[in-house]
Amino acid sequence: MPSLPLKNDRFIRALFRKPVDCTPVWMMRQAGRYLPEYRKVREQAGDFMSLCKNPELACEVTLQPLRRYEFDAAILFSDILTIPDAMGLGLYFTPGEGPRFEHPITSKADIDKLSIPDPLHDIAYVPDAVTTIKRELNQSVPLIGFSGSPWTLATYMVEGGSSKTFSKIKGLLYEDPNTLHALLDKLAQSVIQYLNAQIHAGVDCVMLFDTWGGVLSTPAYAAFSLAYMEKIISGLDLNYEDRNIPTIVFTKNGGLWLEKIAAIGCTGVGLDWTIDIDIARARIGDKVALQGNMDPCVLYSSEESIRSEVKRILNSYGEGSGHVFNLGHGIHPEISPDHVACFVDAVHELSQH
Amino acid sequence: MPSLPLKNDRFIRALFRKPVDCTPVWMMRQAGRYLPEYRKVREQAGDFMSLCKNPELACEVTLQPLRRYEFDAAILFSDILTIPDAMGLGLYFTPGEGPRFEHPITSKADIDKLSIPDPLHDIAYVPDAVTTIKRELNQSVPLIGFSGSPWTLATYMVEGGSSKTFSKIKGLLYEDPNTLHALLDKLAQSVIQYLNAQIHAGVDCVMLFDTWGGVLSTPAYAAFSLAYMEKIISGLDLNYEDRNIPTIVFTKNGGLWLEKIAAIGCTGVGLDWTIDIDIARARIGDKVALQGNMDPCVLYSSEESIRSEVKRILNSYGEGSGHVFNLGHGIHPEISPDHVACFVDAVHELSQH
Fold first, then answer.
1. CA–CA distance, A319 with A297 (Å, rounded to integer)
2. pLDDT in tens, A337-350
3. Residues contacting B329, CB < 8 A, separation 6+
4. For residue A249, which of A87, A266, B43, B302 is within the disulfide window of CB 3.0 to 4.6 Å?
5. Which H helix or E strand runs over A155?
6. Chain A closest CA to B87's CA: distance in Å?
């Protein structure tokens, strides 16, 4: 069903580097614990995955930040580990330790046994949430769908959870690269189907979160993370129903590899705060849009400091479209909601074109 | 007292980019838990700081890896947090959580109260250990002294221990930069005196570990980490007793800033494994030596894989001196001592000039 045009398409226009009236802004984890209304729904839902798996509640928390702030995009409320959970690894969360798997991958046989989830059946709550959110948004702003990158998903699946050293998956990478490639290939196929289901359900943009690509050496990043993201981009239905759906690739700590990331066919590249956005623009800004890149910790400081840092980054990017303002990582749970208001308003006010 | 020449000066020669017969190698944390003989001494000493504070035992564990392997340098066994401990913050270690401080910095008043430790009085165990180790080494290989960078020390002092988000110190950085500068300035003065005491006691090289510089934005890194390392380098007695003492600066995740690091007057720049050493050499190798940069996780894999990765990095650096082989971070405790032997031998064998 062809949809009505978006009422606010600043985010989409900036990604395609078309003129905008001011710089669009959204925040990674904008639906999250810094909002009291989120914490209330989260409590009601029980645990985190129950919230993700309930399309009505996922819709509610997706919309919450848009009621408070003039964000130029909504992002599907979900987790990056829905695919391995659907593969049967048994995702659960422990307070303070983050995500864990009951059945981590420990052998080649474990990988051979994995089947590619059917998103409409095994992860139906995600396309259902997309449909619900799109209906409620009523074309006010675009909706971003997303997935974890194959490498990032694989780190959790092999380590069994978060890791500081990534010793298990890197041991596998150096010792038996073919086995790791078999896992990454299944994950890439799964991500393609998963993101296409989100596209078919109505998302206006898709983003790949490569949270842990930055822990790899340069050749390992190219072979074990970037190659699979490239495969995904080329497998997506980006012209579904004659729409033109932009893609964003974000590798945290990927500043050394921007040229390589910009070359895989994505529309925009996400930047963390360690790279200067003017340098990033000089390196790749003629090929892609840039998304970022304020240190989330700036939001701990005064409104004056927040405005000053927003201004510095806007000036650093410079004239012309092609910039989606964002934090360089998800917002921290302790941030004051008032500081977020200051941040969003500063981006819009200080970037009037 | 002028000392006899070093029997093996490959490490020093490579730092000054003078010809060497093969590439020198040592390992960050080479005196550490992967060695059973270390674990025995550690048990005997009680807790970790009791080991650091006992010059005879610190000497013993410093020498242990040199008895097993053909390392081209020894590194003083100590902790990076000796200075804040001597300032009265009460360093202690909790299993699995790393270093903690009983009295973290929580106000400007806390910073005003800090006094600069006299290394010969308040941290005497460190120069004492240096004297002891130098005597026992008997000029066989050079001894590296070290300190944490002011920014890295400050992160632990303000956060109270390790951190994932660095929210407290970055809140301070953005909200009240002058107060943070006051702390960093005291730390820089302390590090100068501390490293000079190590130089006077006999170390042949000094290294600054900037473990957490890489969590900063580019302008914040320049102002809050690099500027203080530059101040330290220019305050060191590098020509003490007519010796010519090289310096190494290592910012983990500092690959974006190599040109800036190479310009602060250091002899060598440490590289983690995320940057290709050929690219690093093209960017700064005409100004400084390079130290690094194998992913420590390679040591989990087979001897064949270890040799192949050593070869790749040696070839990537290319012909000529100026390379000190090392890991891109400290060795992990679970690594097999046999794999370390394979690693050290591979560097020497595969780099015959």
1. 26
2. 999 999 999 999 99
3. B28, B252, B272, B273, B296
4. A266
5. helix A150-159
6. 27
Measured between beta carbons, which residues in chain B are less than 8 angstroms from residue A218? Answer: 274-276, 279
Is residue A262 within 8 A of residue A295, CB to CB? The reply is no
Q: Tell me the C-alpha distance between A270 and A248, whole Å.
A: 7
* B29 is an active site residue: yes
Instruction: Give the distance, in angstroms, between the CA of residue B99 and the centroid of all CA atoms in the same chain.
Output: 17
pTM: 0.96
Which entry of A125, A156, A221, A317 is annotated as an active-site residue? A156
Q: What is the pLDDT of residues A123-176, one digit of tens each?
A: 999 999 999 999 999 999 999 999 999 999 999 999 999 999 999 999 999 999
Q: Does B167 touch chain A (CB under 8 A)?
A: yes
Q: Is B301 on the interface with A (CB under 8 A)?
A: yes
How many CB pairs below 8 A link A and B? 99
| Beta carbons within 10 angstroms of residue A167's beta carbon | 18
pLDDT tens digits, one per residue of B74-88: 999 999 999 999 999
**B297 vs A334: CB contact, 8 Å cut-off?**
no
Cα angle, residue B158 at apex, residues B156 and B163 outer, rounded to 5°: 50
Which H, E and C letters describe B165-222, residue by residue?
Answer: CCHHHHHHHHHCHHHHHHHHHHHHHHHHHHHHHHHHHCCCEEEEEECCHHHCCHHHHH
Cα–Cα distance for residue pair B335/B294, rounded to 1 Å: 14
Smallest CA–CA distance, residue B302 to chain A, in Å, is 6
Per-residue confidence (pLDDT) for residue B94, from 0 to 100: 84
**Which among B33, B39, B283, B312 is annotated as catalytic?**
B33
Q: Whole-angstrom distance between the N-terminal and C-terminal Cα of chain A?
A: 34
Strand ranges in chain B using DSSP code E only, listed in sequence order: 74-75, 91-94, 98-101, 143-148, 205-210, 247-251, 268-270, 289-294, 323-327
Q: Which of B170, B279, B300 has its CB closest to that of A297?
A: B170
Could you tell me which of A184, A191, A287 has the C-alpha nearest to residue A233?
A: A191
- The alpha-carbon gap from B180 to the nearest alpha carbon of chain A, in Å, equals 14
Task: Please report, in angstroms and rounded to a whole number, the separation of the first and last CA atoms in chain B.
Answer: 34
Question: What amino acid occupies position A32?
Answer: G
DSSP collapsed to 3 states, A201-266 = HCCCEEEEEECCHHHCCHHHHHHHHHHHHHHHHHHCCCCHHHCCCCEEEEECCCHHHHHHHHCCCC
Are A295 and B220 in contact (CB < 8 Å)? yes
Q: Which of B34, B69, B125, B156 is catalytic?
A: B156
Across the interface, which of B171, B255, B297 has its CB nearest the CB of A167?
A: B297
* pLDDT tens-digit series, residues B230-251: 999 999 999 999 999 999 999 9
CA B264 to chain A, closest CA, distance in angstroms equals 20
CA A38 to chain centre: 19
CB A148 within 8 A of CB A178: no
> Largest alpha-carbon pair distance within chain B?
57
Q: Which candidate in B297, B315, B339 is best for mutational testing of the A interface (most A CBs within 10 A)?
A: B297
Name residues 122-161 of chain A within 8 A of B (Cβ).
none
Phi and psi for A131 in degrees, rounded to 5?
Answer: -60, -45
The residue ranges of DSSP E strands in A127-217, in sequence order, are 143-148, 205-210
**Given B217, B221, B298, which is nearest A174 (Cβ)?**
B298
Residue B143: strand, helix, or coil: strand
Round to whole Å and give the CA distance between A107 and A94.
25
CA distance A8 to chain B (A): 31
Q: What is the pLDDT of residues B16-35, one digit of tens each?
A: 999 999 999 999 999 999 99
Told to judge if B278 belongs to the known catalytic residues of this protein, a careful annotator would answer: no
